[in-house]
Structures are given as C-alpha cells and as structure tokens.
Amino acid sequence: MSEPAVETPVLDRYECRACGYVYEPEKGDDKGDIPSGIIFADLPVSWRCPVCSAKKTAFANIGPAGTASGFKENLGYGLGVNNLTPTQKNILIFGALALGFLFFISLYGLQ
C-alpha cells in the first residue's frame, strides 16, 4: 500500500504596515531569536517588528513567496500578465526593454 501524502503547510509571509518589513517563516527572525520555520501565528504575543517595534497586529498577510502579486479578484485580467510572479514580471519588463534597445541600436546599421 502507498503511504498517505504529507501536506506541507503553506508558509505565508506577513508585512508590517508601519515600515514594510516582511516576516518570512523560511528565514525566521535573527534579531528576535525566532528560528526558521516558525509560522506567524506561532510567534509569541510579545514579538515585535525588528525594524520599527510594531506589534503583531500591525502586520498583514501577503501570502506565500513566489505567488502572483495583487488582489485575487484581479488576477484574471490583463491578458494573463496578472498571473505572473514578481520575478516573471521583472524578466518580462527588462527583457522587453533590452530587446527595444537592441532594435534601436540596430538602426545604426542601416545606411
């Protein structure tokens, strides 16, 4: 018989609304002696933002790393571009800029 699949919990990141610090469970918090792998809900109540000392209530869930950014109801719009992760969007934007630059430079080859 096969063994049941073990589901790994999705590690959501939380962003401080006061200063923009992002708590990532994969990294933990060295300043607060929080080891990696501790989800935000399991942090002690006394834990504060390592940057601005804001309370846990000042943090908002921004989802797991590598997911599409933006509101979930807007992900279906934009010719599919809204489903791209931030890294994929950067590659698309800067790749198009590089390609445009190469086309512009190639115009010097015309005589």
Blueprint (SSEs and pairs):
Blueprint: E1 13-16, E2 22-23, E3 59-63, H1 86-106
Antiparallel strand pairs: 1-2, 1-3
What attributes characterize this protein structure?
111 residues; alpha+beta; 3-stranded antiparallel beta sheet; 19% helix; single chain; 3 strands
Explain what the structure shows:
The protein is an alpha+beta fold and 111 residues long. It is built from one helix and three strands; from the N terminus they run E-E-E-H. The chain has one helix at residues 86-106; strands at 13-16, 22-23, 59-63. A hairpin with a 5-residue loop joins strand 1 (13-16) and strand 2 (22-23). The longest helix has 21 residues, at 86-106. It is elongated and about 70 Å long.
Please tell me the overall pLDDT.
82
Report the biggest beta sheet as strand number plus sense, adding barrel if it closes.
3 strands, antiparallel
Shape: elongated
Unreliable residue stretches: none
Radius of gyration: 21 Å
Taken as a percent bin, the fraction of beta residues is: 5-15%
Q: Portion of residues in helices?
A: 10-25%
Number of helices: 1
* Count of β-strands: 3
SSE-based structural type = alpha+beta
Task: Record the strand order, biggest sheet.
Answer: 2-1-3
Helix-strand topology string = EEEH
> Roughly how many Å apart are the termini?
73 Å
Question: What would you say about this model in short?
Answer:
The chain is an alpha+beta fold and 111 residues long. It has one helix and three strands, in the order βββα.
